[in-house]
Amino acid sequence: MQALIVIDVQMDFCEGGALAVPGGSEVVESINALMPEAGAVVLTQDWHPDGHSSFASQHSGKAPLETVEMDYGTQVLWPDHCIIGSEGAAFHPDLDTARADMVIRKGFRRDIDSYSAFFENDHATPTGLAGYLRERGIKELTFVGLAYDFCVAWSALDAAKLGFRVHVREALCRAIDADGSAAEARARMESAGVTLG
Ligand SMILES: [Zn+2]
């Protein structure tokens, strides 16, 4: 069985949001159109407490897109975004959330970020999604959503490492593309055996 994994199609990642990904809302209708043919639909939702450690505002002298060293590795800093319960954390109002079998929230621990739908940014703490998919007999995953070069790519790379067959529908993703990050993500996914297109 194949699952459609819709990454972070939330207000803060769309136009006018706190961490807007260019063209973010353009993908919503085409993602909805893919849902009926999917064996399962999983939505992810970036979901941070106030004062999350990935926010530049928590690191004096740091601006968004600068980095800090955390005990789990290098962390890119972001504007405050997707605060638990806020309007910015809500799904895009046109996304067909009724079709979702499962909504997985990530990044809810203050001291660690989670780009991937499978592991927090230490690459070790699981979100539980792999177990859910395996228990349902799902072996093939199609990823769409925001942002291509961060949460989509990290999720796809983890999924490939976990042994799923992984496809990323690039036309249904949008990238932040800071400093060539989209090309870098693409190269990493290609070498990990992720099917792109
Ligand atoms: Zn976040």
Shape: globular
Total count of domains: 1
Helix count from the secondary structure assignment: 4
Name the CATH architecture.
Answer: 3-Layer(aba) Sandwich
Mean pLDDT: 97
- Indicate the CATH class: Alpha Beta
The total beta strand count reads 8
CATH H-level name... which superfamily? Answer: Isochorismatase-like
Which structural class matches the secondary elements? alpha/beta
Distance between the termini: 20 Å
- Bound small-molecule species: zinc ion
Segments where pLDDT lies below 50 for 5+ residues? none
State the helical fraction: 10-25%
Helix-strand topology string: EHEEEEHEHEHE
Task: Report the sheet with the most strands, covering strand number, pairing sense and barrel closure.
Answer: 6 strands, parallel
The CATH topology name reads Rossmann fold
- Rg (CA only): 15 Å
Can you list the strand order of the major beta sheet? 5-2-1-6-7-8
Portion in strands: 15-25%
EC number: 3.5.1.19
GO molecular function: metal ion binding; nicotinamidase activity
Keywords: Hydrolase, Metal-binding, Pyridine nucleotide biosynthesis
Pathway: Cofactor biosynthesis; nicotinate biosynthesis; nicotinate from nicotinamide: step 1/1
Give an account of the 3D structure.
The chain is an alpha/beta fold and 197 residues long. It has one domain (2-48, 87-196): 3-Layer(aba) Sandwich (Rossmann fold), CATH 3.40.50.850. The chain contains four helices and eight strands. It has helices at 28-34, 129-135, 148-161, 181-191; strands spanning 2-7, 40-46, 67-70, 73-76, 102-106, 140-146, 165-174, 195-196. It has a six-stranded parallel β-sheet with strand order 5-2-1-6-7-8. It has a two-stranded antiparallel ribbon with strand order 3-4. Helix 4 links the parallel strand 7 and strand 8. The chain is globular and about 50 Å long. Bound molecules: zinc ion. Zinc ion binds at residues 46, 48, 54, 81-82, 107. Its EC number is 3.5.1.19.
